Amino acid sequence: MKKRKGYFSISAVAQMFSVHQQTIRLYEKEGLINPKRSEGNTRLFSEEDIERLEEIIHLTHNVGINLAGVEMILKLQKQIKKLQKEMNSLFTATQKELENDLLETNHTLKNQAEKLASIAGKRTKRSGGKVAQLSGGTHHDDAQ
User: Fold this and answer.
1) What pTM did the predictor assign?
2) Tens-place pLDDT, residues 50-93
3) How far lies 78's CA from each of 52, 73, 139, in Å?
4) Which end of the chain is more exposed for a tag (fewer CB within 10 A), N or C?
């Protein structure tokens, strides 16, 4: 259904969906929709109300679900959206934490590599051009 701007009366909404106004009032009475009211107590349906009503009508008329089932489906959809938001927040927080840990680890590794390079450079200078072999403890000339 196309996006609509503003608010709509119950008669306009009933005509949009080819349902009786009383059907819409029943959905309101059952708590499935909650349109705003004007100062004169006229129902004013927003775009969100119309989208929700479209879903309710689809479930009841096309799928054959009763109002109790529709209510349960709508509640479950709301819970799913809430859980999805929580999961997305957790994923985002975890991703940021992992990125920070990676940066910190890379920084630490870089510092350790620089220290090792410095130590290796000092040993080479002390041995007069000879490179120390770490595992065996013996020295070999570079010319060999």
Assistant:
1) 0.64
2) 999 999 999 999 999 999 999 999 999 999 999 999 999 999 99
3) 12, 9, 72
4) C
